[in-house]
Design brief:
Length: 675
Amino acid sequence: MTAEKPQHTGSAERERTPRCRNPFNNIKFFVFCHGLLQLAQLLVSGYLKSSISTIEKRYGFSSQTSGLLASFNEVGNTLLIVFVSFFGSRVHRPRFIGGGGLIASLAGILMALPHLITGKYEYDTSISNFDNNISDICQLDSAASFLLPNCTARKGSGNEKVLPLMFIGQLLLGIGGVPIQPFGISYIDDYASKRNSPLYIGILFAITVIGPSMAFVLGSFMLRIYVDIDKLSGPIALTNDDPRWVGAWWLGFLLASSLLALTCVPYFFFPQEMPKEEATENCVEKHPTKLIHEKTQRCESVQEHSLLDFLKSFPRIMLRTLRNPIYLLVVLAQVNLSAMVAGLATFMAKFIERQFTKTASFANLMIGGVNIPAAVLGIVAGGAIMKKLKMSVKTSALMSTIAVLICVMCAIPLLFLGCSTQNVAGVYPLNNQLDGFPQCKSNCSCKDTFNPVCGSNGVEYRSPCHAGCKVVNKDAELNKVLNYTDCSCISTDPATNSIPATALPGTCGSRCSHLFIPFMILSALTGFVASFSQTPSFMMVLRSVPQEDKSLALGIQFMLFRVLAWMPGPVLYGSIIDTTCILWGAKCDKKTSCHYYDLDHFRQRFLGLQVLFEVGAFLCFLMVFIILRKLQKEKERQQASDPKTKNVDDHLEKINLIKDPIMDKYREANVSHKV
């Protein structure tokens, strides 16, 4: 007996030692893997917003359609988030996270699939090429008949399958993203030490903010590459500052999806339960596994019992939460700000492209490198100020109100930082007479081509054909257009049409480049100040409901975000943008994407909608502050007349119901069974 005991002990130690050294039983390694997974998932989900204007141009989508596409991933997320909340820790969370990541990776591949099933991108060109059947210089009627677009051949190009594929991809992306963050955070909170858990979760939240910024930077690099880089063998005639340029939007999806698939692999090796972080530090000397297993069984039995109680009390808790005016007003303020952010994140790059004549790559770089980091700094600064001043609910409401008010004051000047649409013959201004002499291009047979040129008279034309240009001068080696001559519609004296002139390829631009830097500074400042309200508003939500209702209150909050902000926000912004279009593209009698916008209307409506949402958030925060100030005055009167009120507040604070004494009016229904 005495000889067998040391042998048994040594065997047990040998069995436990590899288990302790196994990296998949280490919560720190799980945090590292989950950070990589979240970053890759955010790259996939955020990348669409960086390439939305390019996809519009490539496949002829309207802004309303692209806005609906951008918000469609929230549909799958909203449908399944309730089931995730229900299952909680009942399932093998790491495997569910890995499976969700693989679904999201597949969704990213589906988003890139349209490029693989469609033909080459056909842009209007001034280089006569009878093989492509495209030319937009002025041709005689007899010659032009050979150059009409072959619409019959285009019917089988596969473009009609593009939109359904992308919608399916976005739906799967939302479904795959459902278990990643909630299961990851709950898993870390269960098995990390109390000291390290906030640090780990804080790292993950930081990644959720950094991820979209990296998605825009990735989009900036990908859109510098030509879309058909995998299908062309010769040089490309376009440059990335050409209005017809389409970047390799699909390549970013493939890269991000591949990274996401790789980061999913470790999750299939993590256990359903792992030793608590404190236990793993001395796992050889202790025997924590059995204790943890028994503790888990006890927790599961409690969960089964509490689930029935929760289902019975669900209607009462829901009604009690929705009848709390502080909670509702704060959530509505957050909904306003979230809808604004959803729309701006989707279309701000497009706005910069059009308003300041910048490339899509440069616009994405500015958003990912300036606007989003400024918002992150605002969130951190708001949380630091709140911690430093130890703010109550009332002072949090005051801080949020002031922050959003300053944000409105910074956003209003943005409405005036811009220029009108450049002079485009026959398009803008509406009373433009520069296209008023049809004899200059009467025999050119100009079609609905889009290859803008800038005439020497400072007027832009939709194509060399619309300018009456009959000669194109090009570099034979580079297959690149240098300029156009013999342009009958361009003259130094439009009244006499006597002196023909030349035209250069490309747009004349909005002539607003000098306002770009002031716009970016003010725009970043607006986002920085608005983000000050992020942390205080969430703390107001947590402190305005009883302790037992917090989980449900947060669930309702994020559900309202999805239904009222994240889903309709991009669609609303896209619809507003479409109302400012003054010339829609057309191919084979089908409307495509917009070629020209009324930039004054674009700026006023796009940024005006931003101001409208900010004003809505300001009014909600202001009402919260007024209500809380009124409650505080009532409480002071009650304390003056009845000293026992203070004792009740002290007791509530000790049992950690809500740490702000002026919220007692909304807790009176719960005091009787808590005290």
